[in-house]
Amino acid sequence: MLAALFERGAFRDPALQNINVTVTEVRLTPDLKHATAFVMPFAGLNAAETMAGLRRGASFLRMAVAREMKLRFAPSLAFELDDRFERAGRIDALLRREDVARDLPHEGTDDGA
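Given the sequence above, the corresponding structure tokens read:
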């Protein structure tokens, strides 16, 4: 639902106009009162400005979600920058280092197992 709202782009906040945001995950508390949306601006551009805009617009987005989904009560929304892509890149870079790669089993070889 959040992704659809971002796609429509009906925001007054200048930080949120004409942005491309990927919603990678939404975590709800067990009581369904609070939701944390993990987001990533396209290519990580203007992440700080986008996150500030999302936090300012959280109440508007909460009402829009409630209206679209016909909810009587909607969870409060919090936004967090999703750093999974950055962490995956760091892990990939570590695995490609020569001193690490030599200790990893290579395709087509018997690793002794």
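The longest helix spans residues 84-96. Try to locate this feature in the token string yourself.
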